[in-house]
Amino acid sequence: MNVKPYPRLALSVVFGVSLLLSLLLALPQAPRALRAAPAALFVTPGGAGNCTQADPCALQTALSLANRGDTLTLAQGTYTGNGGAVITLTQSITLYGGWDGAPAAPVRRDPALYPTILDGEGQRRVIVVGETTTPTISGFTITRGNATGLLGSLFADSDAGGGIYSRDASPLIHNNIITGNLASTRTGVRALGGGVYLANTAGAVLRDNEFAGNSAGIGIQQGDGGGLFANGSFELQNNTFHDNIACQSCSSASGGGAYIGWVSTGAVIAGNHFTHNQSKTGGGLQLVWSKVHVHGNTFADNAVTFSGGGLYTYYDQGSTIQSNTFFSNTTAWSGGAVAIYIANGAQGTQLHNNFIAHNRAAYDGGALYAHSDWNICAITATHNTLVNNGVGIAIGQHMTATLINNIIFSHTLGITTTDSTANILADHTLFWANADDGARGAYPVDGDPAFASPALDDYHITPASAALDRGIAVPGVTTDLEGDPRPIGAGYDIGADELYPRIYLPLVIRQG
Question: Is residue 411 part of a domain?
């Protein structure tokens, strides 16, 4: 029998290859290149060294050397730049300001004591955040940015982001002063985000910043977001927006403090203060085509010429406006505190547990105005406390408003409609000291709410309040303005506050 030799030959080849690999592996190997650990680079305004703490370098030198994960620590002083921006971030690095400049450890940072100023000189953006990056920007004064002619917004031929420009990125912007920035001065254009422009983000965080004196534009056609323009998923928490102007000398201006647009999920707006901002709509904040949770914010002394002195929602998709304080906001038209516009039969916008006091509208709804241009739309307002807003709640055309467990106190007119197509379903409303209650609805309650201290604008109820235990259960509203559970005691309290037994320790003042 003839036996073919191929199997034996194959075994020989395999054995030879294995032997060769063993010999190669036994040879000395060149060492592998290891990636350096994240570097700490130090910068001073006049630096010319090697970027160490003892020998800092210039800002542009450090930026050119930085790799992903590195930290740049900038000493106090003023930094300027050339071209389109003072700083352009192309990698996910950390920028810290407020360093005292000491040449030896420990590194001490205090932005208040050692201000680090990034100055656009009115000629360029201050910071540009590159796409897909996740940098940290903390401890700076970001000022005099100007994006005129730099384009880059979501809309054609429009400028955006004078202070910080970020598109398709997710920065952490923390503990900065963002002031005196401008998106555009080009005649006839639309401009967005004078202080910060944050578009198409997925997980950006803006926390503990101060937005002051920014504007989307001067002399342009339309300006949106004096302090901030944002869309995508993001967190906007514990920031202060004051004295921002959406646009000066514009035919259209929206969102004096901030403009949030086209957000369907993943956005949190909580714990912010919007004061003394100006616009034509949305003095403090404007929401556009969005479904957003607006929680625990303060809107005070904002002003508009049309709708929404404190907050304006346009084409709202079912936002929740919860546990906010609206105080002394004004409009020359409608919705001194809040104006809501809904269309296309949208449902579900909710307002609950809000304090709304001393707001004014020249026409409709010092506290709240809601309407739709077509179809029948609906809102729900429950457990709100309304005090001295002139006309309290005004419901306009094609709108159905369900109003439950609200306090209406000291108004010229409490609840009203402005159109024959409007419909009000009021239930368990407490009325007191109004010139005209207006639409009282079902099971109204008459009695003094017995606020803690109206003279000091403290509208928590006391044990003597007629609101105590007089409300009804509202699905989904299980806490009050401050997070106390509902109900406490025999029933649900009417208004934003559920009376909670608190023990206050005596205040002891030591002498000497």
Answer: yes
Do 466 and 446 touch, CB atoms closer than 8 A?
Answer: yes
Residue matched to tokens 């369907």: 264
What CA–CA distances, in Å, run from 88 to 62, 125, 127, 174? 12, 9, 6, 18
- Do 143 and 221 lie in one domain? The reply is yes
Give yes or no: residues 126 and 256 share one domain: yes
Strand 451-453 with 215-217, pairing: unpaired
Statement to judge: residues 257 and 305 lie in one domain: no
Which pLDDT tens digit goes with each residue over 34-69? 335 789 999 999 999 999 999 999 999 999 999 999
| Cα-based distances in Å from 283 to 85, 106, 217, 246, 279 | 29, 44, 15, 8, 5
Q: Do 279 and 336 lie in a common domain?
A: no
> Does residue 42 sit within a domain?
no
Residue 298 DSSP code = E
Check residue 85 and give its pLDDT.
Answer: 98
The per-residue pLDDT for 11 is: 31
> Hey, which residues does 240 pair with through a beta bridge?
210, 273
Contacts of 2 (CB under 8 A, 6+ apart): none
E-strand ranges in 454-502 read 458-461
Q: Are residues 133 and 277 in the same domain?
A: yes
Q: How far apart are CA 507 and CA 510, in angstroms?
A: 10
Q: Strands 252-254, 355-357: parallel, antiparallel or unpaired by DSSP?
A: unpaired
* Structural domain harbouring 130: 88-93+112-290
pLDDT at residue 374, rounded to an integer: 80
Contacts (Cβ under 8 Å, ≥6 apart) of 97: 74, 109, 111, 115, 116, 118, 138, 139, 140, 141, 176
DSSP 193-234: -SSEEEEEEEEEEEES-EEES-EEEBS-SEEE-SSEEEEEEE
Q: Are both 231 and 324 inside the same structural domain? A: no
Can you give the pTM of this predicted structure? Answer: 0.91
Rounded distance between C-alpha atoms, residue 353 and residue 345, angstroms: 25
Q: Alpha-carbon Rg of the chain, whole angstroms?
A: 29
pLDDT at 2: 38
What pLDDT is attached to residue 511? 37
Task: Tell me, yes or no, whether 327 and 372 share the same domain.
Answer: yes
User: Within this chain, do residues 366 and 237 fall inside the same structural domain, yes or no?
Assistant: no
Whole-number Å distance between alpha carbons of 231 and 193: 11
Residues of the chain where predicted confidence (pLDDT) is lower than 50:
1-35, 503-512
- CA distance between the termini of the chain: 116
429's tokens: 């409303």
Cβ atoms of residues 366 and 360 within 8 Å: yes
338, 361 Cβ separation under 8 angstroms = no
Q: Is 470 domain-assigned?
A: no
pLDDT at position 457 is 95
